Amino acid sequence: xxxxxxxxxxxxxxxxxxxxxxxxxxxxxxxxxxxxxxxxxxxxxxxxxxxxxxxxxxxxxxxxxxxxxxxxxxxxxxxxxxxxxxxxxxxxxxxxxxxxxxxxxxxxxxxxxxxxxxxxxxxxxxxxxxxxxxxxxxxxxxxxxxxxxxxxxxxxxxxxxxxxxxxxxxxxxxxxxxxxxxxxxxxxxxxxxxxxxxxxxxxxxxxxxxxxxxxxxxxxxxxxxxxxxxxxxxxxxxxxxxxxxxxxxxxxxxxxxxxxxxxxxxxxxxxxxxxxxxxxxxxxxxxxxxxxxxxxxxxxxxxxxxxxxxxxxxxxxxxxxxxxxx
Length: 326
Hints:
Layout: H1 2-20, H2 34-41, H3 48-62, H4 81-94, H5 98-112, E1 133-137, H6 148-151, E2 163-164, E3 167-168, H7 186-190, H8 199-202, E4 203-204, E5 206-207, E6 210-211, H9 213-220, E7 225-226, E8 244-248, H10 249-263, H11 266-280, H12 292-307, H13 313-320
Antiparallel strand pairs: 1-8, 2-3, 4-7, 5-6
């Protein structure tokens, strides 16, 4: 339980430091006395790099005590070693501690094995706690109000109908509330080869072979809708009870590829990124190492293709120094 608590604390500080960089960081018991509470209340910000190093050390201490198995195999999806290793890697990437990230991702490889065994449809938010999952926000058996599916679903025609922008999708039901949907940028659309199966997961041009009205407008040059990865079946109003996928194994392999590339291990970098590419389509694999900078640029694109909508894109762009230009 201490290991679980330490891992959750690291998760919260990971989010805080990604969002605000330097934040107050403390490990003392603020509830011990009024003076202790006042001391914490008046703390200044601690350098983010030092906070991350402290969290890495804490996670390295507790990870071996947590269940060394896939998150989906842990009863009630409680916190296990996979999330601890994932957070070690995330924090280490920010601090450019490439060897620390590589070591943690290799431990995840020992637990999760080959990516090819996990189907792409398991990445859909409605498919909860599949074996590739490392961490999901759990909404099993609960009703919550979320704007994820409402803003990532094609527009539903007015009235009690299951027609969404000209396409009948009975599995989405007749009571879904759809707001103005997120519109993909031309850059994002351009990242996908038209034969990439992930394209039809994140972008919806058609459903069951029928074209939506928006993408077929202007001689079939209109923007696609967000894809079925985010749709919630039979959603009532805004009551989206999909799990929110935060970390999964493909992300870990791409982190391994990035850290290995930065540390000069071309073989590991190529092997890791090609596992992700090959699952999408065998012909997508990189056959030769293009050089450190070119590899990093391709990795950035691959992270966008694979992990769209899983909450880490802005932080990646900030970490790379690309956010202002992107």
